[in-house]
C-alpha cells in the first residue's frame, strides 16, 4: 500500500515538473517570438548590423550568434581584418580569422564590411621601419601600403561589400592627424597632404572595382571643425576623380552626446558632398561621471565601467538617447545606408557599462524596444 502511494506521488511529481517545464518552454518560446527582428523593422530604411569578434564567428559565443543571426543583415569585423591581425609580419599573412569571419557572414547572408586598411592603431611598427629601425622612405612605405591593400582587398574581391579604407586620419580641429603615414608619405609638404589617403583609395579601387570605399572617423557628430575636415577631404578626393561611396560616422556616444544638432550637421554636410553616410560603430556609454565626450582616445573599459548600468533610471536614459539618435537617422534615411553597432551585446563590448541594445544575458533591453518603436514610427 505504502509502496503504491509513493509510486503515485512520484508519478504526480513527474507530471507536474514536466508540465511546468513545458509551460516555461512555451512562454519563453512565445517571448522569443514576440521580440521583433531589427532587420525586419528597419528593412525599408537601412542595413543594420554589429561588429563581430572571433568568438562569434567561430561559434564560441552562442549568445551573440543568436542575436546576430536573428537581427543583423550586415557585419563588420571588430579586429580580424586590421593590419596587426591579418598581416603581422612582412611576409606573413594570417588569413584564418578573417576567412572565418567572411565565411560566417556569407553563411548568414550578411553584407560584409572590411575594417580597416590604413590606420595608425593596430598596425605593427615594422610597417614604417627598415631593417636598421629607421623610418622608411616615402616610396618604400607607399609600396608596402600598396602590397597590403592589393593583397587583402584582392583576396576577398567580390565578397566584401565595402571597405573602411582610411580610419581616423583627422584631428579634432579637422587637420590631418600626425601619424607615420602622414609624416613619411606626406613628407610635411602641403601638396602631398592627402597623398597617402588618395593612394589608399586608388589601390583599393584597383583591387576590387565594385567594392564600396569609405572614410571612417569618430566625433564627426560632435566637432563641427572635424566634420568640416572630413568634408574637405571628401571634396578633395572627388576633385581628383577618386571614388568614395560613403563616410562612416562611428558614433561612440554617451548619455549626453551627441546633440541632435551636431548629428544633423554631420549627416547633412557630409551628404551634401555627394557621398552616403553610415553610422559604423554605434554604442552609448552609460557612466555619468568622468569623461563623456566624443574623443575615444580618452575612453577605455575601465573609464566606462558603471555600477549603475543596470538600474531602471540608467536604462530609461539609455533608451531615450537611442530613440533620439535613431529618430535623427530615420529622418535622414535617404542619405543613410547602414547603421552598425560596435559589438553585439553588453557582455562582449569593448567598453563597460551598458552600451548596446542587448544585456549581458543577451536579452533585449528597453533601448532595443525604443529603437523598434522609432523604426515603426518612421514611414
Ligand atoms: O573594439 C576594438 C577593440 O577590441 C580593440 O582593442 C581596439 C584597439 O584600438 O579597437 C576597437 O575598435 C575600434 C575601431 O577599430 C575603430 N574605432 C574605435 C573602436 C573602439 O576603440
Order of helices and strands: HHEHHEHHEHEHHEHEEHEHEH
Task: List each distinct ligand once.
Answer: ligand 9MR
For this structure, the CATH topology of the largest domain is TIM Barrel
SS-based class: alpha/beta
CATH superfamily of the largest domain: Glycosidases
Query: What are the low-pLDDT stretches, counting only 5+ consecutive residues below 50?
Result: 21-30
Distance between the termini: 71 Å
CATH architectural group of the largest domain: Alpha-Beta Barrel
Q: Supply the number of helical segments.
A: 13
Shape: globular
Average pLDDT taken over every residue:
93
Outline the biggest β-sheet.
8 strands, parallel, barrel
CATH domain class name of the largest domain: Alpha Beta
What number of structural domains do the residues give?
2
Provide the β-strand percentage band: 5-15%
Rg to the nearest angstrom?
Answer: 24 Å
In total, the number of strands is: 9
Strand order of the largest sheet: 1-2-3-4-5-6-8-9
Amino acid at each position: 500500500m505504502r509502496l503504491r502511494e509513493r509510486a503515485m506521488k512520484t508519478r504526480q511529481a513527474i507530471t507536474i515538473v514536466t508540465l511546468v517545464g513545458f509551460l516555461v518552454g512555451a512562454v519563453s518560446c512565445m517571448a522569443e517570438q514576440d521580440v521583433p527582428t531589427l532587420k525586419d523593422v528597419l528593412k525599408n530604411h537601412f542595413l543594420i548590423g554589429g561588429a563581430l569578434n572571433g568568438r562569434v564567428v567561430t561559434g564560441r559565443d552562442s549568445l551573440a550568434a543568436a542575436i546576430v543571426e536573428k537581427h543583423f543583415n550586415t557585419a563588420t569585423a571588430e579586429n580580424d581584418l586590421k593590419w596587426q591581425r591579418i598581416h603581422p609580419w612582412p611576409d606573413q599573412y594570417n588569413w584564418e580569422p578573417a576567412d572565418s569571419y567572411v565565411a560566417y557572414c556569407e553563411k548568414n547572408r550578411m553584407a560584409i564590411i572590411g575594417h580597416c586598411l590604413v590606420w595608425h592603431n593596430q598596425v605593427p611598427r615594422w610597417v614604417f621601419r627598415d631593417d636598421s629601425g629607421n623610418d622608411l622612405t616615402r616610396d618604400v612605405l607607399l609600396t608596402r601600403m600598396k602590397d597590403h591593400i592589393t593583397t587583402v582587398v584582392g583576396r576577398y574581391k567580390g565578397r566584401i561589400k565595402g571597405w573602411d579604407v582610411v580610419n581616423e586620419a583627422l584631428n579634432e580641429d579637422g587637420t590631418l592627424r600626425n601619424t607615420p603615414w602622414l609624416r613619411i608619405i606626406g613628407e610635411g609638404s602641403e601638396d602631398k597632404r592627402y597623398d597617402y589617403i588618395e593612394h589608399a583609395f586608388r589601390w583599393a579601387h584597383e583591387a576590387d572595382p565594385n567594392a564600396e570605399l569609405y572614410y571612417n572617423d569618430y566625433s564627426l557628430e560632435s566637432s563641427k571643425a572635424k566634420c568640416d575636415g572630413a568634408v574637405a577631404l571628401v571634396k578633395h578626393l572627388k576633385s581628383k576623380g577618386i571614388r568614395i561611396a560613403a563616410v562612416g560616422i562611428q558614433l561612440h556616444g554617451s548619455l549626453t552626446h551627441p546633440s541632435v544638432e551636431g548629428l544633423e550637421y554631420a549627416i547633412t554636410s557630409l551628404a551634401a558632398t555627394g557621398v552616403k553616410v553610415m553610422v559604423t560603430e554605434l554604442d552609448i556609454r552609460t557612466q555619468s561621471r568622468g569623461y563623456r565626450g566624443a574623443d575615444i582616445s580618452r575612453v577605455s573599459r575601465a573609464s566606462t565601467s558603471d555600477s549603475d548600468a543596470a538600474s531602471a533610471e540608467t536604462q530609461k536614459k539609455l533608451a531615450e538617447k537611442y530613440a533620439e539618435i535613431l529618430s535623427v537617422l530615420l529622418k535622414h534615411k535617404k542619405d543613410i545606408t547602414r547603421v552598425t553597432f560596435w559589438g553585439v551585446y553588453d557582455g562582449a563590448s569593448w567598453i563597460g557599462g551598458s552600451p548596446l541594445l542587448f544585456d549581458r544575458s543577451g536579452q533585449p533591453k528597453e533601448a532595443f524596444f525604443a529603437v523598434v518603436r522609432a523604426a515603426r514610427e518612421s514611414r
